[in-house]
Every structure is written in C-alpha cells, then in structure tokens.
Amino acid sequence: MKKWVAIAASIALAFAFPASAVAEDTPPPSVAVGDFAQYVVPKGKKTTVKPQITTQGAVIVMSVKMTVKHGKKTVARNANSVKLRAGSYQVTTTVQWTSSSVPGINTTVATKPLRISTFSSSKAAKGIVAAFNAVRLKNAAITDFMTRYGLGPSAMTLHRSTTLDKVATSWAKKSAKKRKYIDPDWSKVPAAYEWAWYLPIRTGNPYVPTMSQEATEWFADGDDPMMSCGAHASGDDVVADCSDNVEALWSRLGVGFAWDSKGCLWVVLIIATHK
C-alpha cells in the first residue's frame, strides 16, 4: 500500500489580539477580574482553574484568592487555584494590590460564573470535519481546481470514516501515553485507503471547546495535502503532481482523541483516498 505522508509540527494555540494605540497619558492604576472561558474535561476528571485578572497602570499585585461555590456548597475558600470537576460554579476572586499613585492597600472583588463541561468526542469530531471542509472550500487554489475540472463542492467534501477513526484514536492514545508524537503504523490503515495524510495536534491545558477545531482550521488553511503537490487531470482521473499514481481527490477523514496525564488533549486526523 502506497502512502504519501505530511507530518505537521506541534501547535500551541495562542490567541492574538490587535495592539492598542499608545496613550499619551499614563492610565490610572486599576485591577479587573475577567470572565472565565468554558472549560472542558474528560469524563470523571478535574481541571485546574486559576484566577483571571488584568491590571492597568503601575500596579503591584499582593495577593489573589478565589472562593468557589457549587450551588450552596463552598468547595474552595481563599485558594490560589482549584481543581474542579464538570459543573456550574460561582467564583469570587479577591485581589489585593497597591500602587505608588494610590495610597494604602486596595481590594478588588468580583464574582463570575464558571462552566466546566464534559468532553464529547462525537461533538468535537463533527466540528473538526465541518471546519476542515469549510476551510478547503474557501481555499483559492482548491476553488480554482474545482472550476478548472467542473467539480462541485460535494466532490471536494471529506466524509467521516469509522475505520480511520479507530486508527486515528489508537495513534492519539500512543502519543498521549508518551506525551510526544509517535511514528504512525501505516500497516493499520486498510489497503482500500491507498494514499493517506497524517496530522497530529496537541492542544493546550485548560482545553476550551473550540480549541481542536481552531487548530484544524489553521492547519487546513495553510497545509492542505492536495495543494502541497498540486494536481492535474489525467483522462477521467485527477492525480497529484508529486506522483503519477497518486489520486489527489481526498475523500475520507478519520478523527481520534486521547487525553494525556497533564490534561492536554491529543488529536489525530487521517485524510485518505478511497479506492
């Protein structure tokens, strides 16, 4: 069974925000308590929650403490961080701070809701497949390819494969166990999938619901396997320029998940042609 493999590097998701203009006047010192993202944990596991604060001006933070309630029950009091299971919480954050321009010790207190959900692999996989297909159909090279050969969106749509899901899951588990990318065992991919492309992703901790989907969109937009080679028509077939025998019309996608001991989710995608 022939294989063409493109292995992507590790990704650490970072969210970039536009830089604000430099103010002419120094902003007054202040401290604000921010909102919590929606955390996601494996079933029966916990995630570590830390205070979310922002400072402005010349501020020295002396202490930050959290008191956490689950319903009427207090599950943590005056904690620097807390490990929590899935559920809905109210978190009161108390910040003590000082500044040279504000005399004495100042206190900022705010209560924010916190939602921790149980991870759903089926929901996450559906989001990844939808995201991957959406990005492919926005890729200028792919739309030009479709126009040139009279192909509609359905011809470029990747369909979920339960067989590839199982293979991807086994590879994700091996990576999560060792906490590093493993070389895929291509013998596990059935011969019906003649050509395959492997994409491993390690997400961050804490995991938020859209993290794996955003990583997929990022990779699909910048490293599409078909466009890496280019493609052309050969009779009734569409072949990739990197080999005379490669069918570039990818049609199947498998998704696998596994959590490591540090609470990071490992995601493996397998994209393949199908005879």
Could you explain the architecture of this structure?
There is one protein chain. The protein is of the alpha+beta class. The protein has two domains: 30-118, Sandwich (Immunoglobulin-like), CATH 2.60.40; 121-272, Pathogenesis-related Protein p14a, CATH 3.40.33.10. The protein is 24% helix and 36% strand. It has six helices and 15 strands. The strands form five sheets. It has a five-stranded mixed sheet with strand order 2-9-8-5-6, with no helix packed on it. A four-stranded mixed sheet has the order 10-14-15-11. It has a two-stranded antiparallel sheet with strand order 1-4. Helix 1 runs parallel beside helix 5. It is elongated. Mean pLDDT is 81; it is low at 1-23 and 243-248.
Short description:
The chain has 275 residues and is an alpha+beta fold.
Provide the fold topology:
Blueprint: E1 30-33, E2 39-41, E3 47-49, E4 53-56, E5 60-70, E6 73-79, E7 82-84, E8 87-99, E9 102-118, H1 121-138, H2 140-149, H3 153-156, E10 159-160, H4 162-178, E11 196-202, H5 211-222, H6 225-229, E12 231-234, E13 237-240, E14 252-259, E15 265-272
Parallel strand pairs: 2-9, 10-14
Antiparallel strand pairs: 1-4, 3-7, 5-6, 5-8, 8-9, 11-15, 12-13, 14-15
Gross morphology is elongated
Counted by DSSP, the helix tally is 6
Mean pLDDT: 81
Q: Strand fraction band?
A: 35-45%
What's the CATH H-level homologous superfamily of the largest domain? CAP
As for the CATH topology of the largest domain, it is Pathogenesis-related Protein p14a
Query: How many domains?
Result: 2
Please identify, by name, the CATH architecture of the largest domain. 3-Layer(aba) Sandwich
Ends apart, CA distance between termini: 12 Å
Q: Provide the low-confidence segments as ranges.
A: 1-23, 243-248
Q: Strands across the major sheet, in which order?
A: 2-9-8-5-6
Biggest sheet features: 5 strands, mixed
> Secondary-structure element sequence?
EEEEEEEEEHHHEHEHHEEEE
Please state the oligomeric state of the protein chains shown.
single chain
Say how many strands there are. 15
CATH C-level of the largest domain: Alpha Beta
C-alpha Rg (nearest Å): 24 Å
Helix content: 10-25%
